[in-house]
Amino acid sequence: MDPVSRFLREYQRDENELLGADRLRAPGVFEGEREFIEFAERDYTTDKHWAFEIRPAECALIVVDMQEDFVNPDNPMCVPEAYRQVPRIRSLVECCRSVGAPVFYTEHTIAPDVAHDFYEFWPPIKAGAIAEGKPGSKLYREFQPVDGERVISAKHNYDSFAGTDLDYALRNRGVRTLIISGTLTNFCCESTARTGYFLGYHIVFGSDVNATDSALAHDATLRTLRRGFARVMDHQQIMEILRTGDAPHREAVAARQG
């Protein structure tokens, strides 16, 4: 068994081992603590599709950092899962174009005067990956913005809003709901989703159009966003809602949840 599969198997726990059953039976455990943890576990895995309605006229798609250095298999910081998700993200882009939902792309770029301390510990960045103005920092070649689609290229942080004009551009287009896709799930995509939520946007987070380098990290982001920040769904569900409306999807979810 490969190391990742072994780790995933060891990570999984049955319901009697939730956060360590022995610890929850130990002296000092609060009355009702197990029930509280079980409630939280259910909440982390329950998509709250009733939280807000997705209206295509109020939506924008954010394609986060799908750049040559992050996506191209020949480049030093390639995220393999991001490369595999290109066709799905492109389908989502085309769907948004067809319903008139604007598309925004971000490019994470590094320059000496806008670099954080942590970057110096990443050898590819020290060697020039995603350097400002270099080919590797540009959108991956399979993404070709059309007229009216904005590229946010002055992004020097995980958060697509920090120090950029993204919020201004979104509000100028009357956007109320952000559909988040791209890479890395647990860094730039999650940071963008959280700040979007803090700024008052509704957040839709694509479970299969956000990519990272760890299955556990990806799942942790989905769990946290699902519980308190976003409606989480796959790209097929997102496209169906954009094309046919949200009511049928929400009614189907309500029926399944009783």
UniProtKB/TrEMBL annotation:
- CDD domains recorded: cysteine_hydrolases
Q: Keywords on this record?
A: Hydrolase
Q: What's the name of the protein?
A: Cysteine hydrolase
Species annotation: Amycolatopsis acidiphila
Q: What Pfam families does the database record attribute to this sequence?
A: Isochorismatase
The molecular function GO annotations come to: hydrolase activity
- Which Gene3D superfamilies does the record cross-reference, listed alphabetically? Isochorismatase-like
Q: InterPro entries, alphabetically?
A: Isochorismatase-like_dom, Isochorismatase-like_hydrls, Isochorismatase-like_sf
